[in-house]
Amino acid sequence: MSEANVVIADAQVVVREGLKALLDAVPSLRIVGESDNGVDVLQKVAALRPNVIIISLMLPGISGLDVIKQVRSHYRDIKILVFTTWTHEAYVREALSSGATGYLLKIATSDEIIEAVRQVAQGKLYISESIAHRVQAIVDTKANPAISDGYEALTNRERDVFQLAALGNTCAELAKQLFISPRTAETHLAHIKSKLALHNQSDIILYAFRRGILTLED
Questions:
Q1: Helix crossing, 182-196 with 201-211: angle to 10°?
Q2: For residue 22, what pLDDT band results from cuts at 50, 70 and 90?
C-alpha cells in the first residue's frame, strides 16, 4: 500500500513513544503527529489531515469517543483505530457506531499492532484478536426479523455499493471501482441508508456483519 500518515492520540507518553518506535520502522507508515488530549488531537487532525488516527478512549479535555464523532463528521476519509484497555462489548459497539474503523487492545503484540494499523489504513475493519469472537455477539443482539426484507429490496447496483461501503470504501473510492460518478455513488448510498434505516458507514458495517455479508476474515 502507499504511505499512510498517522497521528497518535494517547494521554500516556510511554504509549505514544512505544507506538512511534514500533511504527516508525514500518516503511508504509509515517508518524506525522501526536497528542495527549482531545482538543489538541482535533487541532492536529485539522492541520495535518492524516490518513489514520490511533486513539485512546480516555483522553483529557474531550473524550476519545467524542473526538471520533467529530472527526467522522468533518473528515470522512480518515480512518480511526481505537487503542484501549477497555474490553467490554458496550465500548466496542459505541466506538464502531461513532465511526471507528478498528478496535485494538493494548495487550496486542507488536505484530498485531502493525497489522491492525495496516488494515485500517487500507479501509478494512479490524477487531483485536482477543475480543474478535465477541463482535458477532454484539451485532447479533441488534438483529431483527425485518433485516432480510430491507436488503432484498436493494437493487443489484445498490448491493454492489453496499458491499464496497461495508468494506470501508469512501464514496470516491467505490465510485471509481464501479465506474460511476461520486454523485451517483452518493445517491445510491442515500437510497441504501433509507431502505435499511441506517445513518452512517459504521451502521452499514454492523448491518453487513449481522446479515453475514461481512465476516472477520474479509
A1: 60
A2: very high
